[in-house]
Design goal:
The chain is an alpha+beta fold. The chain is built from seven helices and five strands. β4 and β5 form a beta hairpin. The longest helix has 16 residues. It is elongated and about 45 Å long. The mean pLDDT is about 95. Bound molecules: FE2/S2 (inorganic) cluster. The site of FE2/S2 (inorganic) cluster has 12 residues, from α5.
Length: about 160
Amino acid sequence: MVVSEQLDSFFTEKMKEYPTQRSFLVPMLLYTQDELGFLSNEAIEYIANKVGLSELEVRNVITYYSMLTTKPRGKYNVQVCTNICCMLRGANELFAHCKKTLGVGHKQTTPDGLFSLEEVECIGACSWGPAMQVNYDFHENLTNEKVDSILANYKKKSEQ
Ligand code: FES
């Protein structure tokens, strides 16, 4: 089994609450990614079978959402929005700062596996840009100094 037995049982039970099995696809992808770190070929095959879709249909959904990945990422995935509202408030400069601070480029991971960096489209925090998302956490009204402090906190958290 690709996922834990516990997660597989959870999926089986939870799917009963949805009108169709495929309605549970996105949550299932997120739970699986949380457990495995990324959506491997084996995970995609497992999920496709579980919800009765083809692997291609599952892959089409994965490529639509920037929070889903078929490749391993760092422990903390830093997604900086550079869409229009954030861009007008300095997101491009902020992303450049992140690249410099982390020493990696778009869709790259630091050698210690701690951080991945990504430039993404709108994350729904337009009124508080520039904004970024780190895993499930949102950070808004960012400055270079705030970003440095946020990244340092994640680093510290990983050492505990
Ligand atoms: S444009 Fe950046 S959050 Fe919407």
